[in-house]
Specification:
The protein is α/β, with parallel strands linked by helices. It has a domain of 144 residues: NAD(P)-binding Rossmann-like Domain (Rossmann fold). The chain is built from 16 helices and 11 strands. The protein has a 7-stranded parallel beta sheet with strand order 4-3-2-1-5-6-7, with helices on both faces. A 4-stranded mixed beta sheet has the order 9-8-10-11, with helices on one face. Strand 10 and strand 11 form a beta hairpin.
Protein backbone atom coordinates (compact mmCIF):
# COMPACT_ATOMS: atom_id res chain seq x y z
CA UNK A 1 0.00 0.00 0.00
CA UNK A 2 1.39 3.41 -0.95
CA UNK A 3 1.72 6.34 1.39
CA UNK A 4 -1.10 8.15 -0.41
CA UNK A 5 -3.41 5.15 -0.06
CA UNK A 6 -2.66 4.92 3.64
CA UNK A 7 -3.81 8.50 4.08
CA UNK A 8 -6.97 8.12 1.99
CA UNK A 9 -10.15 8.90 3.92
CA UNK A 10 -13.61 7.63 3.01
CA UNK A 11 -16.18 10.40 3.01
CA UNK A 12 -20.00 10.51 3.07
CA UNK A 13 -21.61 13.82 2.13
CA UNK A 14 -25.17 14.45 3.33
CA UNK A 15 -26.84 17.34 1.56
CA UNK A 16 -24.52 17.04 -1.42
CA UNK A 17 -26.55 19.20 -3.82
CA UNK A 18 -26.45 22.29 -1.60
CA UNK A 19 -23.77 24.97 -1.64
CA UNK A 20 -21.55 23.35 1.01
CA UNK A 21 -22.01 19.82 -0.31
CA UNK A 22 -21.19 20.88 -3.87
CA UNK A 23 -18.04 22.69 -2.76
CA UNK A 24 -17.01 19.69 -0.65
CA UNK A 25 -17.16 17.59 -3.79
CA UNK A 26 -15.01 20.18 -5.58
CA UNK A 27 -12.20 19.92 -3.04
CA UNK A 28 -12.58 16.13 -2.84
CA UNK A 29 -12.01 16.02 -6.61
CA UNK A 30 -9.04 18.39 -6.26
CA UNK A 31 -7.46 15.94 -3.81
CA UNK A 32 -8.70 12.67 -5.28
CA UNK A 33 -5.62 10.92 -3.90
CA UNK A 34 -6.78 11.79 -0.38
CA UNK A 35 -10.57 11.46 -0.40
CA UNK A 36 -12.84 8.70 -1.62
CA UNK A 37 -16.51 9.71 -1.73
CA UNK A 38 -18.30 6.52 -0.73
CA UNK A 39 -21.80 7.89 -0.07
CA UNK A 40 -23.95 10.80 -1.22
CA UNK A 41 -27.37 11.89 -0.02
CA UNK A 42 -29.78 14.71 -0.78
CA UNK A 43 -33.45 15.52 -0.43
CA UNK A 44 -34.30 15.75 -4.14
CA UNK A 45 -32.63 18.06 -6.74
CA UNK A 46 -32.53 15.01 -8.97
CA UNK A 47 -30.68 16.39 -12.00
CA UNK A 48 -27.78 17.77 -9.95
CA UNK A 49 -27.68 14.69 -7.72
CA UNK A 50 -27.51 12.32 -10.68
CA UNK A 51 -24.61 14.35 -12.08
CA UNK A 52 -22.75 14.04 -8.77
CA UNK A 53 -23.37 10.30 -8.54
CA UNK A 54 -22.21 9.92 -12.13
CA UNK A 55 -19.00 11.84 -11.42
CA UNK A 56 -18.04 10.18 -8.11
CA UNK A 57 -19.66 6.71 -8.35
CA UNK A 58 -20.30 6.32 -4.60
CA UNK A 59 -21.15 2.89 -3.25
CA UNK A 60 -24.39 4.24 -1.75
CA UNK A 61 -26.67 7.06 -2.88
CA UNK A 62 -29.79 8.25 -1.08
CA UNK A 63 -32.72 10.56 -1.77
CA UNK A 64 -35.42 11.49 0.72
CA UNK A 65 -37.94 11.84 -2.11
CA UNK A 66 -37.71 9.02 -4.62
CA UNK A 67 -37.44 10.02 -8.30
CA UNK A 68 -39.70 8.58 -10.98
CA UNK A 69 -36.75 6.55 -12.24
CA UNK A 70 -32.98 6.11 -11.93
CA UNK A 71 -30.89 6.70 -15.07
CA UNK A 72 -29.78 3.44 -16.64
CA UNK A 73 -26.06 4.19 -16.24
CA UNK A 74 -26.52 4.67 -12.48
CA UNK A 75 -28.31 1.43 -11.69
CA UNK A 76 -25.34 -0.95 -11.55
CA UNK A 77 -22.74 -0.84 -8.78
CA UNK A 78 -24.62 1.69 -6.63
CA UNK A 79 -26.97 0.88 -3.77
CA UNK A 80 -29.90 3.30 -3.76
CA UNK A 81 -31.80 4.26 -0.59
CA UNK A 82 -35.06 6.23 -0.66
CA UNK A 83 -37.35 7.66 2.01
CA UNK A 84 -37.43 10.36 4.65
CA UNK A 85 -34.88 8.42 6.72
CA UNK A 86 -32.44 7.98 3.81
CA UNK A 87 -29.99 10.57 5.13
CA UNK A 88 -29.96 9.12 8.65
CA UNK A 89 -29.57 5.57 7.33
CA UNK A 90 -26.60 6.57 5.20
CA UNK A 91 -25.02 8.39 8.16
CA UNK A 92 -25.26 5.18 10.16
CA UNK A 93 -24.55 2.53 7.52
CA UNK A 94 -22.14 4.12 5.02
CA UNK A 95 -18.65 2.69 4.67
CA UNK A 96 -17.04 6.00 5.63
CA UNK A 97 -14.71 7.35 8.28
CA UNK A 98 -16.04 10.89 7.96
CA UNK A 99 -19.59 12.18 7.49
CA UNK A 100 -20.05 15.76 6.30
CA UNK A 101 -23.51 16.88 7.40
CA UNK A 102 -24.83 19.79 5.35
CA UNK A 103 -28.56 19.22 5.71
CA UNK A 104 -30.82 22.24 6.08
CA UNK A 105 -32.66 22.52 9.38
CA UNK A 106 -33.12 20.21 12.33
CA UNK A 107 -33.29 17.24 9.95
CA UNK A 108 -29.52 17.04 10.33
CA UNK A 109 -29.73 16.22 14.05
CA UNK A 110 -30.75 12.58 13.56
CA UNK A 111 -27.98 12.12 10.97
CA UNK A 112 -25.33 13.61 13.27
CA UNK A 113 -26.40 11.34 16.13
CA UNK A 114 -26.47 8.29 13.86
CA UNK A 115 -22.99 9.02 12.52
CA UNK A 116 -21.51 9.53 15.97
CA UNK A 117 -23.23 6.47 17.43
CA UNK A 118 -21.68 4.38 14.65
CA UNK A 119 -18.22 5.71 15.51
CA UNK A 120 -17.75 8.08 12.58
CA UNK A 121 -16.16 11.51 12.61
CA UNK A 122 -18.65 14.31 11.92
CA UNK A 123 -17.82 17.39 9.85
CA UNK A 124 -20.62 19.73 10.86
CA UNK A 125 -21.79 22.27 8.27
CA UNK A 126 -25.26 23.05 9.58
CA UNK A 127 -25.90 24.78 12.87
CA UNK A 128 -29.21 23.28 13.89
CA UNK A 129 -27.99 19.96 15.39
CA UNK A 130 -25.88 21.74 17.99
CA UNK A 131 -28.39 24.56 18.47
CA UNK A 132 -31.27 22.17 19.16
CA UNK A 133 -29.42 19.24 20.71
CA UNK A 134 -26.07 20.60 21.87
CA UNK A 135 -25.74 18.58 25.09
CA UNK A 136 -26.83 15.35 23.39
CA UNK A 137 -24.53 15.80 20.39
CA UNK A 138 -21.44 16.68 22.42
CA UNK A 139 -22.08 13.74 24.75
CA UNK A 140 -22.40 11.40 21.75
CA UNK A 141 -19.12 12.74 20.36
CA UNK A 142 -17.35 12.12 23.66
CA UNK A 143 -18.71 8.57 23.82
CA UNK A 144 -17.61 7.98 20.22
CA UNK A 145 -14.15 9.36 20.97
CA UNK A 146 -14.46 11.61 17.92
CA UNK A 147 -14.00 15.36 17.51
CA UNK A 148 -16.79 17.52 16.12
CA UNK A 149 -15.11 19.36 13.26
CA UNK A 150 -16.79 22.65 12.34
CA UNK A 151 -17.29 23.62 8.71
CA UNK A 152 -18.93 27.02 9.29
CA UNK A 153 -16.36 29.69 8.42
CA UNK A 154 -16.61 31.38 11.83
CA UNK A 155 -16.38 28.23 13.91
CA UNK A 156 -13.66 26.83 11.71
CA UNK A 157 -11.75 30.08 12.29
CA UNK A 158 -12.07 29.72 16.07
CA UNK A 159 -11.07 26.06 15.85
CA UNK A 160 -7.99 27.04 13.83
CA UNK A 161 -7.10 29.81 16.29
CA UNK A 162 -7.36 27.39 19.21
CA UNK A 163 -4.74 25.15 17.60
CA UNK A 164 -2.20 27.84 18.50
CA UNK A 165 -3.17 28.12 22.17
CA UNK A 166 -0.08 26.27 23.47
CA UNK A 167 -1.56 26.18 26.97
CA UNK A 168 -2.68 29.83 26.87
CA UNK A 169 -6.22 29.83 28.24
CA UNK A 170 -8.91 31.29 25.94
CA UNK A 171 -10.58 34.26 27.61
CA UNK A 172 -13.14 35.19 24.97
CA UNK A 173 -14.40 34.04 21.56
CA UNK A 174 -15.05 36.80 19.02
CA UNK A 175 -17.44 35.78 16.24
CA UNK A 176 -17.40 38.15 13.29
CA UNK A 177 -20.51 39.01 11.26
CA UNK A 178 -20.73 40.76 7.92
CA UNK A 179 -23.80 42.67 9.06
CA UNK A 180 -25.74 41.40 6.06
CA UNK A 181 -27.47 43.56 3.47
CA UNK A 182 -29.24 45.81 5.99
CA UNK A 183 -26.33 46.86 8.22
CA UNK A 184 -26.66 50.57 7.36
CA UNK A 185 -30.45 50.65 6.97
CA UNK A 186 -32.88 52.38 9.30
CA UNK A 187 -34.97 50.10 11.54
CA UNK A 188 -38.27 50.98 9.84
CA UNK A 189 -36.81 50.20 6.40
CA UNK A 190 -35.46 46.87 7.64
CA UNK A 191 -38.91 45.92 8.92
CA UNK A 192 -40.40 46.40 5.44
CA UNK A 193 -37.49 44.86 3.46
CA UNK A 194 -38.45 42.69 0.50
CA UNK A 195 -37.45 39.11 -0.19
CA UNK A 196 -35.23 40.20 -3.07
CA UNK A 197 -33.41 42.67 -0.82
CA UNK A 198 -32.95 40.13 1.98
CA UNK A 199 -31.47 37.58 -0.43
CA UNK A 200 -28.84 40.02 -1.73
CA UNK A 201 -25.94 39.24 0.61
CA UNK A 202 -22.95 41.57 0.12
CA UNK A 203 -20.16 38.99 0.58
CA UNK A 204 -21.28 35.36 0.58
CA UNK A 205 -23.18 33.11 -1.81
CA UNK A 206 -25.41 30.83 0.28
CA UNK A 207 -28.77 29.09 0.26
CA UNK A 208 -31.97 31.09 0.67
CA UNK A 209 -32.69 30.16 4.28
CA UNK A 210 -29.22 30.96 5.61
CA UNK A 211 -29.11 34.18 3.57
CA UNK A 212 -32.32 35.39 5.22
CA UNK A 213 -30.88 34.35 8.60
CA UNK A 214 -27.84 36.49 7.84
CA UNK A 215 -30.09 39.44 7.02
CA UNK A 216 -31.90 39.17 10.40
CA UNK A 217 -28.61 38.26 12.15
CA UNK A 218 -30.37 35.11 13.39
CA UNK A 219 -27.54 33.28 11.66
CA UNK A 220 -25.12 34.82 14.15
CA UNK A 221 -27.50 34.08 17.01
CA UNK A 222 -27.43 30.40 16.06
CA UNK A 223 -23.63 30.55 15.80
CA UNK A 224 -23.37 31.87 19.36
CA UNK A 225 -25.31 28.83 20.60
CA UNK A 226 -23.26 26.51 18.42
CA UNK A 227 -19.99 28.01 19.70
CA UNK A 228 -21.11 27.46 23.29
CA UNK A 229 -21.26 23.70 22.64
CA UNK A 230 -18.41 23.28 20.16
CA UNK A 231 -15.87 24.99 22.39
CA UNK A 232 -17.42 24.45 25.85
CA UNK A 233 -17.47 28.22 26.41
CA UNK A 234 -20.11 30.00 28.52
CA UNK A 235 -22.33 32.44 26.66
CA UNK A 236 -20.96 35.48 28.50
CA UNK A 237 -17.54 34.76 26.97
CA UNK A 238 -18.83 34.69 23.38
CA UNK A 239 -19.10 38.09 21.71
CA UNK A 240 -20.11 39.19 18.23
CA UNK A 241 -18.40 41.90 16.17
CA UNK A 242 -19.75 43.26 12.90
CA UNK A 243 -16.93 43.16 10.34
CA UNK A 244 -18.27 44.23 6.92
CA UNK A 245 -15.19 43.14 4.93
CA UNK A 246 -15.54 39.44 5.93
CA UNK A 247 -11.76 39.02 5.92
CA UNK A 248 -11.30 38.21 9.62
CA UNK A 249 -13.47 35.13 10.01
CA UNK A 250 -13.29 35.06 13.82
CA UNK A 251 -10.82 35.53 16.69
CA UNK A 252 -9.83 34.12 20.06
CA UNK A 253 -8.70 36.40 22.88
CA UNK A 254 -6.35 34.74 25.36
CA UNK A 255 -5.68 35.24 29.06
CA UNK A 256 -2.29 36.88 28.45
CA UNK A 257 -3.85 39.56 26.21
CA UNK A 258 -2.92 38.00 22.88
CA UNK A 259 -5.55 37.75 20.15
CA UNK A 260 -5.24 35.16 17.40
CA UNK A 261 -7.37 35.70 14.29
CA UNK A 262 -7.96 33.64 11.17
CA UNK A 263 -8.09 35.67 7.96
CA UNK A 264 -8.88 34.72 4.39
CA UNK A 265 -10.96 35.51 1.35
CA UNK A 266 -14.71 34.72 1.57
CA UNK A 267 -14.28 31.18 0.21
CA UNK A 268 -16.05 28.29 1.95
CA UNK A 269 -13.71 25.75 0.38
CA UNK A 270 -11.06 26.61 2.98
CA UNK A 271 -13.07 25.65 6.10
CA UNK A 272 -14.59 22.68 4.26
CA UNK A 273 -11.20 21.29 3.28
CA UNK A 274 -9.69 22.05 6.69
CA UNK A 275 -12.35 19.90 8.34
CA UNK A 276 -11.91 17.16 5.75
CA UNK A 277 -8.11 17.05 6.06
CA UNK A 278 -7.65 17.89 9.78
CA UNK A 279 -5.15 17.73 11.43
CA UNK A 280 -3.34 18.32 8.14
CA UNK A 281 -3.79 21.30 5.79
CA UNK A 282 -4.24 21.03 2.03
CA UNK A 283 -4.47 23.78 -0.64
CA UNK A 284 -7.95 24.74 -1.83
CA UNK A 285 -7.00 26.19 -5.19
CA UNK A 286 -8.74 29.42 -4.16
CA UNK A 287 -7.61 33.03 -4.33
CA UNK A 288 -5.28 34.62 -1.81
CA UNK A 289 -5.79 38.00 -0.13
CA UNK A 290 -4.27 40.89 -2.06
CA UNK A 291 -3.01 42.91 0.88
CA UNK A 292 -2.23 45.94 -1.29
CA UNK A 293 -5.95 46.25 -2.11
CA UNK A 294 -7.14 45.79 1.47
CA UNK A 295 -7.55 49.38 2.61
CA UNK A 296 -9.18 48.84 6.00
CA UNK A 297 -10.53 46.26 8.42
CA UNK A 298 -13.36 47.73 10.47
CA UNK A 299 -15.29 46.39 13.44
CA UNK A 300 -18.56 47.55 14.99
CA UNK A 301 -20.73 46.56 17.91
CA UNK A 302 -23.92 44.92 16.60
CA UNK A 303 -27.04 47.08 16.80
CA UNK A 304 -29.41 44.84 18.74
CA UNK A 305 -32.25 47.35 18.42
CA UNK A 306 -32.21 46.93 14.64
CA UNK A 307 -31.25 43.25 14.87
CA UNK A 308 -32.88 41.85 18.05
CA UNK A 309 -32.38 38.24 16.94
CA UNK A 310 -28.90 38.28 18.43
CA UNK A 311 -30.25 38.85 21.94
CA UNK A 312 -32.56 35.85 21.58
CA UNK A 313 -29.56 33.51 21.45
CA UNK A 314 -28.36 34.63 24.87
CA UNK A 315 -31.91 34.44 26.25
CA UNK A 316 -32.30 30.89 24.94
CA UNK A 317 -28.95 29.84 26.40
CA UNK A 318 -29.92 31.30 29.79
CA UNK A 319 -33.22 29.40 29.69
CA UNK A 320 -31.37 26.22 28.69
CA UNK A 321 -32.96 22.85 27.98
CA UNK A 322 -35.22 22.91 24.94
CA UNK A 323 -35.30 26.72 24.58
CA UNK A 324 -32.68 26.79 21.77
CA UNK A 325 -34.66 24.09 19.92
CA UNK A 326 -37.75 26.30 20.18
CA UNK A 327 -35.80 29.29 18.87
CA UNK A 328 -34.55 27.28 15.91
CA UNK A 329 -37.88 25.65 15.04
CA UNK A 330 -39.84 28.90 15.22
CA UNK A 331 -37.21 30.63 13.10
CA UNK A 332 -37.37 27.96 10.39
CA UNK A 333 -41.14 28.39 10.17
CA UNK A 334 -40.94 32.18 10.16
CA UNK A 335 -38.25 32.31 7.48
CA UNK A 336 -40.23 29.93 5.28
CA UNK A 337 -43.32 32.12 5.72
CA UNK A 338 -41.30 35.18 4.71
CA UNK A 339 -39.90 33.41 1.64
CA UNK A 340 -43.49 32.50 0.70
CA UNK A 341 -44.60 36.15 1.13
CA UNK A 342 -46.87 35.31 4.07
CA UNK A 343 -45.19 37.66 6.58
CA UNK A 344 -43.02 40.75 6.32
CA UNK A 345 -39.30 40.66 7.06
CA UNK A 346 -39.56 42.40 10.41
CA UNK A 347 -42.09 39.86 11.64
CA UNK A 348 -39.55 36.98 11.53
CA UNK A 349 -37.79 37.85 14.77
CA UNK A 350 -41.06 38.82 16.45
CA UNK A 351 -42.49 35.35 15.78
CA UNK A 352 -39.38 33.71 17.26
CA UNK A 353 -39.51 35.86 20.39
CA UNK A 354 -43.21 35.17 20.93
CA UNK A 355 -42.67 31.44 20.45
CA UNK A 356 -39.92 31.48 23.09
CA UNK A 357 -42.30 33.21 25.49
CA UNK A 358 -45.11 30.69 24.90
CA UNK A 359 -43.27 27.37 24.75
CA UNK A 360 -42.47 25.55 28.01
CA UNK A 361 -38.83 24.61 28.57
CA UNK A 362 -37.80 21.02 29.31
CA UNK A 363 -34.51 20.78 31.19
CA UNK A 364 -32.04 18.02 30.25
CA UNK A 365 -34.21 16.77 27.37
CA UNK A 366 -33.94 13.44 25.61
CA UNK A 367 -33.58 13.38 21.83
CA UNK A 368 -37.31 12.69 21.52
CA UNK A 369 -38.10 15.70 23.71
CA UNK A 370 -35.87 17.91 21.54
CA UNK A 371 -37.83 16.88 18.46
CA UNK A 372 -41.12 17.41 20.30
CA UNK A 373 -39.99 20.91 21.33
CA UNK A 374 -39.15 21.63 17.70
CA UNK A 375 -42.61 20.48 16.58
CA UNK A 376 -44.30 22.49 19.30
CA UNK A 377 -42.32 25.60 18.32
CA UNK A 378 -43.43 25.16 14.73
CA UNK A 379 -47.07 24.80 15.78
CA UNK A 380 -46.85 27.96 17.85
CA UNK A 381 -45.11 29.83 15.02
CA UNK A 382 -47.71 28.75 12.48
CA UNK A 383 -50.45 29.91 14.85
CA UNK A 384 -48.69 33.27 15.26
CA UNK A 385 -48.21 33.59 11.50
CA UNK A 386 -51.84 32.71 10.86
Amino acid sequence: MTKGEMRMRKLAILGSTGSIGSQALQVAALHADRFQVTALAARSSYARFFEQVRAFRPRVAGLCIAPAEIPEDLKDGIDWIFGEDAITRIAREADAQDVLVSVVGIAGLSAVMAALQSGKRVLLANKEPLVAGGALVTQAAREAGQPLLPVDSEHSAIFQCLQGAQGNKPRRLLLTASGGPFRTWAAEDIYRATKEQALRHPNWSMGRKITVDSATMMNKALEVIEARWLFDMPAQKIDVLVHPQSVVHSMVEYADGAVIAQLGTPDMRLPILYAMSWPERLPTGGAFIDWTQLRALTFEEPDTEKFPALLLAYEALRAGGTAPAVLNGANEEAVQAFLEDRICFGRITQVVREALERAPVVSNPTLEQVFEADLQARRIARDLIG
